[in-house]
Design a protein that fits this description.
Elements (H helix, E strand, L loop, with lengths): L1 H17 L3 H12 L3 H29 L1 H21 L3 H15 L2 H12 L5 H29 L4 H21 L8
Helix pairs in contact: 1-7, 1-8, 3-4, 3-5, 3-6, 4-5, 4-6, 4-8
C-alpha cells in the first residue's frame, strides 16, 4: 500500500522533471537570452557539479532533520528558484538562480531512495525499487512532449513554471502523506 501511494506521488514529481530535460532548459536559455553553446556547456557543467555535491549535503541534512523533511524542504526552494529562472531579466541572473537551484534539486534523490527502502519490508525492496523507478522513468518520458507544446502554445518559460508548480504540489502532498511515517533509523 505504501509503495502505490508513494509511487503515485513520484509520478507527479517525475512528470514535472520531464519538463526540465537538459535540452529543453538549454533551448530556454538560447531562445530567451541568446546564449551560445560554449556558455551553455559551462553552465550545465557547473549545474552537474552542484548536483553531485548536493548528494553529499543531503546525507548531512537527513541525519539532522529526517529523510522526508530533507526531501521536501530542499525541493520546495529549488522549485521556487526555478520559477525565478523563468522570469529572470537577463542571462547572468538566470544562470545564478539556475545554479542555486541545481545545488538543491538533487538532495531528494538519495533521501528518496533511502526512504523507500526503509519503509517497505526487506523482501519488498527489489520490487519497490523497480516499481518506483519504472513510474519515474515512464512519467519523465511524457514530460518533454507536453513541455514542448507549452513552449509553443504559451511561452518559452512556461515549462519551467509548470514544472515548478507540479514539483511543489508533489512536495506538499508527500510531506502531508508521509511526515509521520518515519524510517526505523529515525
Amino acid at each position: 500500500r505504501i509503495l502505490w501511494r508513494i509511487s503515485s506521488l513520484f509520478a507527479l514529481d517525475s512528470l514535472g522533471g520531464g519538463f526540465l530535460t537538459a535540452s529543453l532548459v538549454a533551448w530556454f536559455f538560447y531562445e530567451r537570452f541568446g546564449v551560445d553553446a560554449g556558455s551553455l556547456g559551462l553552465l550545465f557543467f557547473g549545474a552537474r557539479v552542484l548536483n553531485a555535491l548536493s548528494h553529499l549535503g543531503a546525507a548531512w541534512l537527513a541525519r539532522r532533520f529526517g529523510l522526508v523533511n530533507t526531501m521536501v524542504f530542499t525541493h520546495i526552494p529549488s522549485s521556487l528558484l526555478l520559477v525565478t529562472v523563468a522570469i529572470a531579466p537577463n542571462f547572468t541572473v538566470a544562470a545564478i538562480l539556475f545554479l542555486l537551484r541545481e545545488g538543491l534539486v538533487e538532495m531528494d534523490v538519495p533521501t528518496r531512495q533511502s526512504y523507500v527502502m526503509a519503509v517497505v519490508q526487506p523482501e519488498e525492496r527489489t520490487i519497490a525499487s523497480g516499481v518506483t523507478h519504472l513510474v519515474r522513468v515512464g512519467m519523465w518520458a511524457i514530460g518533454p512532449a507536453i513541455a514542448g507544446w507549452a513552449m509553443q502554445e504559451y511561452s518559452i518559460g512556461a515549462p519551467l513554471a509548470i514544472a515548478a508548480m507540479m514539483k511543489i504540489a508533489y512536495d506538499l502532498l508527500l510531506w502531508r502523506a508521509f511526515r509521520h511515517l518515519k524510517p526505523p533509523e529515525e
